[in-house]
């Protein structure tokens, strides 16, 4: 089965367009109380950069590339893990105990 | 290769989980589960990325064993350090941690750009890919050094706004220099060069990092949340660009979504502060004083915490304005204890939250939620600002710029035009403050000099303890 991904030219632009609108729509109607957690959450999501750095390190063909790749993975992993922990801790507080107005049950 | 198919399938699922998780994070009810869903996507993507090891380029094959070992070490160190530091950091210090982690993401994107340019992978794919690699590297490096400066400022390691003579020209020159080097590399890709000279790449990233530093140093602390949000969007964009270079759809989609969502968040935050993003980046907010301080009439009056507490005890309607000082003193729990005593007495208590209370929009809500304050007595600026005129007492705890009437009247003030909470309209205002210092923007606060304002000096935590004691002794 041949299903390799090649993203070039207009296909790339279409993906960019659709993803950009998706991000805009998801954030569009968010209450102000969630701005900080959401910034933190989106900070976590671009931690996906770690997989790119992993590819770069695995394909490193010289010592210099190994060093840069190592740093890349280190930083990317920090972004992903730190972003997750911090976001999770913030959102932890939105959990129970509120007889709140806007927080109806799902 | 079958491993390629597995990786692509894993990325597809991961991309779905990111979007679904982010969507759930956008509502207070489902937010908690949202981050867990997105986290699952991340674990899946990282696990799948190990499969890259089965299909490396010919020139990397001799290095593969070392590379895998390095990979495991780097992942372990990165995750371990970030996990522990993220768990340990106090809630009040969250904003700078977000800045730090964001800078790391930008650095990772820049590192990918560097390896792709050095190894010749980017050049082999033609000028378009080369341009994207360069732009991603530039934006990522700016996000890295800029976020580090933002972190240092919020963490109190760097307090002064710092600028060079002709600062904006230096920035413009750096940007032009980076773009020029990028253009040179692109031309090399067009004429079919196989590798980029190391020196050129080094200079390119040095210039980009310097640009990030110089863009951020002149910006005052009050604007830092907007700047962090902007760099967050930058990193997203850099990740998306490098995703195109690596033909990695998960990076493209996640990066682009963050880029656009982050841009929108930045605009929303800037709007809440009545600031324009371009003004923040290119202006002097938080800079030197304009020398108009001397015109303020009146004197500051000090008063005891217990007196203030007693007058609130006998009031009908009290509005509390919490600020960063409250958070620093970790006094939100004591504050809520005091509020419950007032409520038992039948006093109507509400919280008024300025859009930028704390250090980021929504930061104060997080801190109050931590103390267990129910949502229904916490109000936004638009909802509560009219009610100050009917309030018997308004008490400001560790907030300053967001209650400064100069924002309404004094055109020369750097905070002019920012929406503020109308504390000056309450019958009596108390301001709990550690000393007579100025706010984060460095502007003198006219509110403190008004006839119906009394200052309660002291650490917010200690003041709250005194207030609780005073009220308890009454009843």
TrEMBL record, chain A:
Could you tell me which PANTHER family the record lists for this protein? NAD(P) TRANSHYDROGENASE (PTHR10160), PROTON-TRANSLOCATING NAD(P)(+) TRANSHYDROGENASE (PTHR10160:SF19)
Briefly state the protein's biological role: The transhydrogenation between NADH and NADP is coupled to respiration and ATP hydrolysis and functions as a proton pump across the membrane.
> What membrane topology was assigned to this protein in its record?
Multi-pass membrane protein
InterPro entries assigned to the protein according to its UniProt record, in alphabetical order: NADP_transhyd_a_C
Parts of the chain that traverse the membrane: 6-24, 44-61, 67-86
Which superkingdom does the taxonomy of this entry point to? Answer: Bacteria
Q: What is its EC number?
A: 7.1.1.1
Reactions the enzyme catalyzes: NAD(+) + NADPH + H(+)(in) = NADH + NADP(+) + H(+)(out)
Q: What sequence ranges are listed for the domain NAD(P) transhydrogenase alpha subunit C-terminal?
A: 13-95
Q: Name one GO cellular component term.
A: plasma membrane
What's the top EC group for this one? translocase
Name one molecular function that GO assigns to this entry. Answer: proton-translocating NAD(P)+ transhydrogenase activity
Q: What organism is listed for this UniProt entry?
A: Halopseudomonas aestusnigri
Q: What is this protein called?
A: proton-translocating NAD(P)(+) transhydrogenase
TrEMBL record, chain B:
Q: Where is the NADP transhydrogenase beta-like domain?
A: 8-469
GO molecular-function terms, A-Z: NADP binding; proton-translocating NAD(P)+ transhydrogenase activity
Class in the EC hierarchy, top level:
translocase
Q: Any idea where this protein resides?
A: Cell inner membrane
User: Among its keywords, does the record have Translocase?
Assistant: yes
- Keyword DNA damage present in the record's keywords: the answer is no
Residue ranges of the TM segments:
6-22, 34-54, 66-86, 98-118, 130-151, 172-192, 198-219, 226-245, 251-270
Main location as per UniProt? membrane
Cellular component, GO annotation: plasma membrane
Q: PANTHER family, from UniProt? A: NAD(P) TRANSHYDROGENASE SUBUNIT BETA
**Described function:** The transhydrogenation between NADH and NADP is coupled to respiration and ATP hydrolysis and functions as a proton pump across the membrane.
Q: What is annotated about its quaternary structure and interactions?
A: Heterodimer of an alpha and a beta chain.
Instruction: Identify its protein family.
Output: Belongs to the PNT beta subunit family.
Q: What is this protein called?
A: NAD(P) transhydrogenase subunit beta
């Amino acid at each position: 089965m041949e299903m390799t991904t090649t993203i070039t030219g207009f296909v790339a632009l279409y993906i960019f367009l659709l993803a950009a609108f998706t991000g805009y729509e998801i954030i569009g109607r968010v209450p102000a109380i969630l701005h900080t957690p959401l910034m933190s959450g989106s900070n976590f999501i671009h931690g996906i950069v770690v997989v790119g750095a992993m590819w770069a390190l695995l394909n490193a063909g010289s010592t210099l590339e190994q060093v840069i790749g190592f740093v890349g993975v280190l930083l990317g992993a920090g972004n992903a893990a730190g972003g997750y922990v911090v976001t999770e801790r913030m959102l932890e507080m939105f959990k129970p105990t509120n007889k709140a107005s806007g927080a109806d049950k799902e | 290769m079958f491993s390629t198919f597995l990786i692509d399938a894993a990325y597809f699922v991961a991309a779905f989980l990111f979007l679904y998780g982010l969507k759930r994070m956008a509502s207070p009810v489902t937010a908690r589960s949202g981050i867990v869903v997105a986290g699952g996507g991340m674990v899946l993507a990282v696990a799948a990325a190990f499969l890259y090891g089965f299909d490396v380029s010919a020139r990397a094959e001799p290095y593969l064993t070392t590379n895998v070992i390095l990979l495991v070490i780097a992942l372990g160190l990165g995750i371990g350090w970030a996990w522990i530091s993220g768990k340990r950091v106090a809630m009040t210090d969250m904003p700078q941690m977000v800045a730090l982690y964001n800078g790391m993401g930008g650095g990772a994107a820049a590192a990918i750009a560097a390896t792709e340019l050095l190894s010749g992978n980017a050049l082999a794919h033609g000028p378009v890919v080369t341009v994207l690699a360069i732009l991603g590297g530039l934006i990522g490096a700016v996000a890295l050094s800029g976020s580090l400066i933002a972190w240092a400022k919020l963490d109190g390691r760097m307090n002064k706004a710092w600028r060079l003579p002709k600062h904006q020209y230096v920035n413009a020159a750096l940007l032009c220099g980076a773009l020029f080097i990028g253009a040179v590399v692109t031309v090399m890709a067009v004429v079919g060069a196989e590798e980029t000279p190391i020196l050129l790449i080094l200079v390119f990233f040095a210039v980009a990092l310097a640009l990030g530093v110089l863009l951020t140093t002149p910006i005052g602390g009050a604007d830092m949340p907007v700047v962090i949000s902007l760099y967050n969007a930058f990193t997203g964009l850099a990740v998306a660009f490098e995703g195109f270079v690596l033909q990695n759809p998960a990076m493209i989609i996640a990066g682009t979504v963050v880029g656009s969502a982050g841009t929108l968040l930045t605009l929303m935050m800037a709007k809440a502060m009545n600031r324009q993003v371009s003004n923040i980046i290119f202006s002097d907010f938080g800079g030197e004083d304009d020398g108009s301080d001397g015109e303020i009439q009146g004197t500051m009056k000090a008063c005891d915490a217990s007196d203030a507490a007693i007058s609130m005890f006998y009031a009908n309607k009290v509005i509390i304005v919490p600020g960063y000082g409250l958070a620093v003193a970790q006094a939100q729990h004591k504050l809520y204890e005091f509020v419950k005593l007032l409520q038992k007495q039948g006093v109507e208590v509400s919280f008024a939250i300025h859009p930028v209370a704390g250090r980021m929009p929504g930061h104060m809500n997080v801190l109050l939620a931590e103390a267990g304050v129910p949502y229904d007595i916490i109000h936004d600026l638009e909802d509560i600002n009219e009610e100050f005129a009917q309030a018997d007492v308004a008490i400001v705890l560790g907030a300053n710029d967001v209650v400064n009437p100069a924002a309404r009247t004094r055109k020369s003030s750097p905070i002019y035009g920012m929406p503020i909470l109308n504390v000056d309209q309450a019958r009596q205002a108390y301001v709990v403050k550690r000393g007579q210092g100025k706010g984060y923007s460095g502007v003198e606060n006219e509110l403190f000099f008004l006839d119906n304002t009394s200052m309660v000096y002291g650490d917010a935590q200690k003041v709250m303890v005194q207030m609780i004691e005073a009220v308890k002794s009454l009843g």
